[in-house]
Amino acid sequence: MLRMAAARLLDAVPTVLLVLTLVFVALRLLPGDPALVVLGEYATPEQLDLFRRQMGLDQPLWWQWLDFLRDMLTLDFGTSMITRQPVGALLAENLPYTIELTLLATVMGLLLGVPMGVAAAVNRGRWPDNGARVFSLVGYAIPDFYLGALLLIVFALTLGWFPINGGGEGFADRLYHAFLPALTLAFVKAAFLGRLTRTALLETLGRDYVRTARAKGAREPRVIYRHALRNALLPVATGLGLSLLATFSGSVAIELIFNRPGIGEVLISAIAKRDYPVIQGGVVVFAFFVVTVNLVVDLAYIVIDPRIRAKA
């Protein structure tokens, strides 16, 4: 397992370098001068030149790129051009809110989607199956930002059951503040995981070893949960990894709708103000999250499937 984890981490290095390079190039292609954005249009040419020298923007692009890679690989995110606050401290302050929202939404989607998919597969063609398919269609059809705005209007503004904004203080209060945004993200994830679980379980229930287990007199719950569902979890684990990544990136819009602190608010503000260090630091966080999730999914394969464990 350790050998496989090390191999996956080595495979991720070129990907991370490519992502960092693309981000560097994309930022430099954006219209607008960061010096003008920060200092304003009434700044003198001397002030603009001084700012560019202080930020290293007067160096050749290839030199800026080398400095950028060196800083990112050593986790030196630099200082915000706007607030002069260390980027590492800014990200560390806001990242926990995004992580807790992502994990809560994923757990809610998993607890709702997988049982729904199992019920749909076991009752194929009957009302649980039809209900799960309708739920999946509705979940796919409604965008996150529209559902979030709808839930905010109904349950926060109209009924007053949940807070309108903020991230909360303390464990219970933070869960309370995160529940409605997490439910927004979990709705689509549950539809996706439910449909995926249903398809994978139906395919597994038609295998020879499942028919053999039934012929030997095994009880139906044992056949479903011990034999069929465990082997159907491989595609579900893949889908869960993809869902986790989509939830992490989708939390950007949801944080803005619910006016929550988090990486989304920081990045949107940084992009609008051409704050290169903050944008670059945020992208590194996203890249690290993608690598970590992919590694966890690969290790989950080893736990779920003994055949992969034997090869690892």
Give a verbal description of the structure:
With 312 residues, the protein is mainly alpha-helical. Helices cover 80% and strands 0% of the residues. It has 13 helices and no strands. It has helices at residues 2-29, 34-39, 45-55, 61-73, 87-122, 127-141, 144-158, 171-205, 208-215, 220-257, 263-272, 276-304, 306-311. Helix 7 crosses helix 10. The longest helix is centred in the last third of the chain and has 38 residues, at 220-257. The chain is elongated and about 85 Å long. It starts with a helix and ends with a helix.
Summarize the structure.
This protein is mainly alpha-helical and 312 residues long. The chain has helices at 2-29, 34-39, 45-55, 61-73, 87-122, 127-141, 144-158, 171-205, 208-215, 220-257, 263-272, 276-304, 306-311.
